[in-house]
Amino acid sequence: MPFGRLTVKGNVVSDESADVENALKLLLGINRFSTIEDDQRQVRLDELKKTKFPSATTKPTEKEAMAALARVLTMDDPPKIVLMAVAALFDPGKRYAFGGDRRVVFKKVGKGHNDDSRQLAIANLMFDLCQHMSYAEAAEEAARVTGLGDRQVKRIYGCIRT
Hints:
- Strand 1 and strand 2 form a beta hairpin.
- It contains seven helices and two strands; from the N terminus they run ββααααααα.
- The radius of gyration is 25 Å and the shape is elongated.
- By secondary structure, it is mainly alpha-helical.
């Protein structure tokens, strides 16, 4: 697949090719993505511009481009250029075909600091302790073991129990 806009006289060939184009805009930048019809002069001028990446106000938006990238990566045979651009994000110190000046940072999607498996383990601890001691004593012991306050332990247990 050539690096360039997948078009036939301005019309997008397919949804799949539009996804590839939007994924590359996310990975490489909007103005780095030039059309096949562009002459060499236009391509060189594009390379001189500051790279602009999709955001909430661009077309495609960052959210649309990220969804397109996800669809491209789950294709049976994703384009090699997309895979190399993703590799460059994960290992920016190495120079793949391009990239190297950006990197991926993993962030938890949900708000707050919920850790469902930990909360379930705390609730199980509370349940086990309540079999041998009072609710208040169990909360104090669970708080000591987990490093949380007894009110927090009671809240977690109450959420899981109901």
